[in-house]
Amino acid sequence: MRVHQLRVEEVLEQILPPSTIAPARLHEAMRYAVLGGGKRVRALLAFAAGEVAHAQPESVAVAAAAVELIHAYSLVHDDLPCMDDDRLRRGKPACHVAFDEATALLVGDSLQSLAFQVLSQRPWACDPGRQLEMVRTLAAAAGSRGMAGGQAIDLASVGMELSLPELEFMHIHKTGALIRAAVLLGAACGTGLDGDAHARLDRFAKFSGLAFQVVDDLLDVQANTSTLGKTAGKDAVQNKPTYVSVLGVGRSRELAEELRSEALAAIDRLGPQARRLRELTEFIVMRSH
Ligand code: GRG
Parallel, antiparallel, or unpaired: how do β-strands 92-93 and 88-89 relate? Predict the structure, then answer.
């Protein structure tokens, strides 16, 4: 895992504009938001799915970096006062606190553009048609029918009571869409997947994405701010519907275990190449931050 984390860190370091070139402050803020923090779960999922499809790690690293850029943009915008209004991210001041709100807005915009620039650069995947498909997959995952749409539902849900299916719908979009894109992009960097394996990976991505969110909701009530690197206990303060508010802690933990089992069952037939996906599923469910 560490090797892949370092590999994606290296690609991110290279593709982010240096803070010595104009506009220096924007570039400095982009680097601040992306580098030296984050678990890189989405990148690791891309590498793990790439292994199932016999992809070259150098190719997967580019796709993984693009997904991490979109993720970093979403965190910068999510922390803004007009959204989740948080001052701490990845154990340090949020981007708009360390810089300013206007810069943070532009950081998010620029990271999103950079993700698609990277993904569409000179052919680096096995064929340009597949590369174009990856651009489409990531765009759909980030947009109004994916992550941004999920965020809109999240903002509109404050103070409301959601049913379990409504909560699931929100999270399949807000958190799940990008996790799914990470898995599909990693797999698309390789050549070895038939339709059945692709469907299995897609199913895996759905369950592991939901498990990720259930655990996130649990950590919000069970972990402390210094372990999380972001403000703990915010969901209740902001009166947000979460798995914990809908199901309670005990049932949410059970649900995380059920989702873990579903995710593992989905890739059961994928053999030893899916070993890292299994390890990541354990990490997602057992993580402490
Ligand atoms: C602003 C368009 C827009 C979208 C924001 C992803 C998101 C939507 C908001 C983040 C808020 C949040 C806490 C969501 C729960 C799950 C989640 C995405 C947690 C953060 O991801 P991690 O734990 O973060 O992978 P690191 O820092 O490790 O990369």
Answer: antiparallel
Which pLDDT tens digit goes with each residue over 98-142?
A: 999 999 999 999 999 999 999 999 777 668 888 999 999 999 999
What's the pLDDT tens digit per position in 85-96? 999 999 999 999
Where do the H-state alpha helices sit in 53-163?
Answer: 57-78, 95-98, 101-119, 128-142, 147-156
Identify which of 84, 138, 175 to mutate to test ligand 1's pocket (most ligand atoms within 8 A of the CB): 175
Top mutation candidate among 67, 213, 216 for ligand 1, by most atoms within 8 Å of CB: 216
Look up tokens 């850029």; give the residue.
69
Ligand 1 centre to CA of 74 (Å) is 7
**CA 19 to ligand 1 center in whole angstroms:** 25
d(CA 78, ligand 1 centre) in Å: 8
Nearest CA to ligand 1 atom 4: 74
Tokens of 81: 């006062």
Q: Please say if the pLDDT value at position 195 is more than 70.
A: yes
46 Cα: distance to centroid of ligand 1 (angstroms): 17
CA gap 253, 202 in Å, rounded: 23
In the chain, domain spans: 2-286
CATH of domain 2-286: 1.10.600.10
